[in-house]
Write a structure and sequence with these properties.
Elements (H helix, E strand, L loop, with lengths): L3 H24 L3 H25 L7 H24 L2
Helix pairs in contact: 1-2, 1-3, 2-3
């Protein structure tokens, strides 16, 4: 079972890396990413808020399954956002 501490670190690393990718592309002057930067960043911040609030939820029956679902949600959303970034 993944610990809550490790899962929070994974969330910060994955989503932080995605923000970093956007910044690198923006510094290179890619016009498309600059136009869509705010929308992608809002999606990243929304995913972050959702995942952290789900982790902090106290009334969970099966904590192990709950944390697995959060990890899967992180992976799916991270992959989706990465694909959007790669389009640029």
């Amino acid at each position: 079972m993944a610990s809550i501490k490790k899962l929070k670190k994974d969330i910060n690393y994955v989503l932080g890396d995605l923000i970093g990718m956007i910044s690198e592309i923006e510094h290179k002057g890619e016009k498309k990413i600059i136009e869509n930067k705010n929308a992608i960043e809002e999606q990243i911040y929304g995913v972050y808020d959702d995942l952290i609030s789900r982790i902090n939820k106290k009334d969970v029956e099966n904590k192990k399954q709950h944390l697995k679902e959060i990890a899967q949600h992180l992976e799916e959303n991270g992959r989706d956002i990465l694909n959007k970034i790669k389009e640029f």
